[in-house]
């Protein structure tokens, strides 16, 4: 007869194993099969537990948390994934690149790029009921950014459970080096164009981020505060894609231009 304690232990062992598989995929550079079926019983909560296990493992290994990212901010992508809310992931210091700094070959599995607006905070935001005014006053400056998304799951064959467990499919971020004060900028209307290898491959605007980048940021701030992991002064908040993501193979280069924020660029080194 299976006891409750045995059932809990089995579920705990399963999630630990899934977390290990994702870590090994990144370490070995070999993507794994989807894990959604094994997460199905526990749902989104179980997927976030896998993410948390890998965050804790990384911290214990000396990696440093420097911010958070929001994903699934587009209503069409949410519909595709069968969810009605965004997701989030953690940013570590070793994931952050500066404008023009190359992405090392094989650093990210199955890399794609998307343009975003990054917010850098000057205050802690510890309250689950943080107001939009409190958020706006806590934004020290804005930066144009590119997120290099990647998937440790084969062929990007992902569901919401796969991507949440996989740290919201985050690989690296690259941010511009000219900070922009947020005053007098209408971020929802800020247009974006991203070129890959000299051709415009993605266009969009701030309205793609839950209607406004500040709305996306507010969701993330409140969610992290409710989980006891609030955004802190100095941390980076990635507010979601302004347009479709684009494949980013070895040897490629990308330049994102965001109205009012300027440009940010990244190259992908070849083997």
Automatic annotation (TrEMBL):
Record-annotated Fumarylacetoacetase-like C-terminal domain positions: 84-265
What Gene3D superfamilies does the annotation carry? Fumarylacetoacetase-like, C-terminal domain (3.90.850.10)
Q: Which SUPFAM superfamilies match?
A: FAH
Q: Name one Pfam family in it.
A: FAA_hydrolase
Keywords from UniProt, A to Z, are:
Lyase
Q: Which domain of life is it from?
A: Bacteria
PANTHER family in the cross-refs: 2-KETO-4-PENTENOATE HYDRATASE, ACID HYDRATASE
Instruction: Quote the protein name from its UniProt record.
Output: 2-keto-4-pentenoate hydratase
* Source organism (scientific name): Glutamicibacter mysorens
Phylogenetic classification of the source organism: Bacteria, Bacillati, Actinomycetota, Actinomycetes, Micrococcales
């Amino acid at each position: 007869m299976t006891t409750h304690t045995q059932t809990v232990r089995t579920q705990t062992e399963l999630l630990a194993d899934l977390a290990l598989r994702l870590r090994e995929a990144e370490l070995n550079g070999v993507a794994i099969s989807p894990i959604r079926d094994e997460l199905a019983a526990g749902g989104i909560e179980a997927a976030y537990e896998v993410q948390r296990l890998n965050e804790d493992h990384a911290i214990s290994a000396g990696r440093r948390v420097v911010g958070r990212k929001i994903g699934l901010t587009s209503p069409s992508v949410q519909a595709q994934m069968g969810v009605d809310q965004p997701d989030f992931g953690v940013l570590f210091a070793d994931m952050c690149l500066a404008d023009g700094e190359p992405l090392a070959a094989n650093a990210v599995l199955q890399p794609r790029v998307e343009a975003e607006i990054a917010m850098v905070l000057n205050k802690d935001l510890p309250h689950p009921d943080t107001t939009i005014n409190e958020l706006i006053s806590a934004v020290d400056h804005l930066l144009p950014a590119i997120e290099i998304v990647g998937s440790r799951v084969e062929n990007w064959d992902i569901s919401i459970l796969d991507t949440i467990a996989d740290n919201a499919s985050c690989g690296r971020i690259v941010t511009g080096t000219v900070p922009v004060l947020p005053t007098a900028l209408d971020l929802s209307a800020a247009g974006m164009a991203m070129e890959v290898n000299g051709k415009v491959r993605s266009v969009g605007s701030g309205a793609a981020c839950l209607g406004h980048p500040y709305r996306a940021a507010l969701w993330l701030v409140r969610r992290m505060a409710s989980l006891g992991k609030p955004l802190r002064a100095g941390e980076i908040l990635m507010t979601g894609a302004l347009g479709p993501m684009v494949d980013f193979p070895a040897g490629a280069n990308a330049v994102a231009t965001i109205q009012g924020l300027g440009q940010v660029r990244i190259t992908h080194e070849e083997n």
